[in-house]
Amino acid sequence: MIDRPSPARLYAAPAAARHAPSRYRFRASIASYGRTHCLVTTETRCGPAWPHSPFHLVYVGTNWSRLMSKVTKLSCSCGAVEMEADGSPIMSTECLCTSCRSAATTFERLPGAKKLCEPSGGTRTEMYRKDRVRCVDGSDHLREHRLTDQTKTRRVVATCCNTPMFLDFTEGHWIDLYSVLWPENTLPPLQMRTMAGDLDDPSKLPNDVPNLKSHSPTFFVRLIAAWIAMGFRRPKIDYVNGVLDISGK
Ligand SMILES: [Zn+2]
Ligand SMILES: [Zn+2]
């Protein structure tokens, strides 16, 4: 969080400014605090408040608008692997596809692993632009798991505590972060379930959000809008080290 300065301050200008004409100055700049960037505007008004006094009044008003200030801190269960995500997710989804359910079953069998499957059988993720997510600590614990040798999709697990961290479609511009990384009660609300067509009986799903047979036009529009905003880049995730041993040793 940023400490906002008081919106306005009044102070006395030196006597040398006494005969200066009234003036108004406006400045705008970008200030960076770590990974937080703010637009800072400063207004200065100076005028003869008391014509016969040795002081002029200077008014300084500072307005801060946050361009991109929300950083979500994420971690595996033991805290050894820390990640950060900037801003809001592209979408909050639950995937019911056969691959996600199969991988979740595998991950839940790892020693010490927590439950990953939702009551529906799906896995809950937050979809972010790849350029807005980073691993800030413990990347040496990250291992990938692919369901087949040919697939371009890998799921990454933190081996320190066997927490599933994210799904990476290696040719895509987004990353699906598993909901288990969010501290309790901070996960953004679910917006849709996808790939319900892979279930034997999708009619049993709750009706709290749309249950899409595969994906919807809205899903693709949001995904493509994010890609346009990224300038059609597809950043690579280069902080995964090796392959997960699913025998659980
Ligand atoms: Zn861990
Ligand atoms: Zn899936």
Description of the structure:
It is a single chain. The protein starts with 7 loop residues before the first strand and ends in a 20-residue tail after the last helix. 26% of the residues are buried. 10% of the residues lie in helices and 37% in strands. The longest helix is centred in the last third of the chain and has 13 residues. The N terminus is likely disordered. It folds into two domains: 61 residues, no CATH class; 159 residues, glutathione-dependent formaldehyde- activating enzyme (gfa) (Alpha-Beta Complex), CATH 3.90.1590. Strand 10 and strand 11 form a beta hairpin. It is built from two helices and 14 strands; from the N terminus they run E-E-E-E-E-E-E-H-E-E-E-E-E-E-E-H. One zinc ion binds next to loops. The site of one zinc ion has 9 residues, from loops.
Task: Tell me briefly what this model is.
The protein is built from 2 helices and 14 strands, in the order E-E-E-E-E-E-E-H-E-E-E-E-E-E-E-H.
Give the SSE string.
EEEEEEEHEEEEEEEH
Distinct small-molecule ligands in the complex = zinc ion
The SS-based structural class is: mainly beta
Strand order of the largest sheet: 10-11-12-13-8-7-14
Compile the SSE list and pairings.
Layout: E1 8-12, E2 23-33, E3 36-47, E4 57-68, E5 71-75, E6 82-86, E7 91-95, H1 98-108, E8 123-129, E9 133-137, E10 142-145, E11 153-158, E12 163-169, E13 174-178, E14 192-194, H2 217-229
Parallel strand pairs: 7-14
Antiparallel strand pairs: 1-4, 2-3, 3-4, 5-6, 6-9, 7-8, 8-13, 10-11, 11-12, 12-13
The protein binds zinc ion (ZN) (2 copies).
